[in-house]
Write a structure and sequence with these properties.
26% helix; 3-stranded antiparallel beta sheet; 5 helices; alpha+beta; 5-stranded mixed beta sheet; YbaK protein; 161 residues
């Protein structure tokens, strides 16, 4: 496995957990609605994986539907902490081994805890695949189970515009 192909790291990590994934090359899109249409999904079916820093310098993954935004108060309550923040791009890469826009819990260089928004339950979702220009398709319930994710209401309506 070469670092030139992070999607291979994703495939191996998924197989190690018995998780069936499909990784597809995808064309560039000008925004969420176009990306969703290209993949044959509703915008909510594209799930953002956010790496979030805790005050003790550990991290977690938050999985949020693409048409929604993370709700910091709700996520803090579910995690049981008073402070969370998004790290800068270099810290996110250091914490996961993936660049922003490609981050996925599968194959992360550290197995951080996963928190999933309840709206993805029961869905087939698309998410980052470890490399730009690729998307990963997976059954959300299987992903939640494979990573023992905590599920809750951690999102809010995305701001307009």
């Amino acid at each position: 496995m070469s670092e030139a192909d992070p999607t291979e790291r994703v495939r191996i990590a998924a197989a190690d957990r018995g998780l069936a994934v499909e990784i597809r090359e995808r064309p560039p899109a000008r925004g969420l609605p176009e990306a969703a249409a290209l993949m044959g999904l509703a915008p909510s079916g594209i799930v953002k994986t956010l790496v979030v820093k805790r005050s003790d310098d550990t991290f977690l993954f938050a999985l949020v539907p693409g048409d929604r935004a993370i709700s910091w108060p709700k996520l803090r309550a579910l995690v049981g902490v008073n402070r969370l923040q998004l790290p800068d791009a270099s810290r996110a890469l250091e914490a996961t081994g993936y660049e922003r826009g490609t981050i996925v819990p599968i194959g992360s260089t550290t197995a951080w805890p996963v928190y999933a928004d309840e709206r993805i339950v029961g869905q087939r979702i698309a998410m980052g695949a470890g490399a730009h220009g690729f998307s990963l398709f997976v059954d959300a319930d299987a992903l939640i189970s494979a990573y023992d994710a905590k599920v809750g209401d951690i999102s809010t309506d995305a701001p307009a515009g």
